[in-house]
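Note to self: keep these together.
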Amino acid sequence: MKPWLWIANVVATILVGAAAILQLVDASSPDSSCGPQCDPHGYIVIFTAIPVLVVLLVALSALGSLVMRHRAGFWLELVAAAGCAFELLLLRSLLTVVHAVSVGAVIAATVVLAIVGLRKAPVRRQYRLPEPPYPAA
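Structure:
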């Protein structure tokens, strides 16, 4: 597998984590497309912070797996991108169009890179101990 693909997936995972944080910041800012009249008590920040934390935890574990060159990092990267896409669907009415399009582009690029990485990554064989000889029956 080409080393640039691992690096590209690490960068894409970092961008997914940043996009998840920026979605929360943009949705809770007073100059979002909805304005402060939509959420005067801050419930959006409260209820969207939990999915952001889950996406960030999955993205960090994907980052660790990709740095260690484990194939599971690609699957975790796909889960983090799916969580970021779910968050984009939740907050699409509160985000600006430019921000929603840029987050969508980051998610699409991450999914493409993760799928290419899954197709190209070598599969390690599990080491199995030789079985002891069985006694004659």
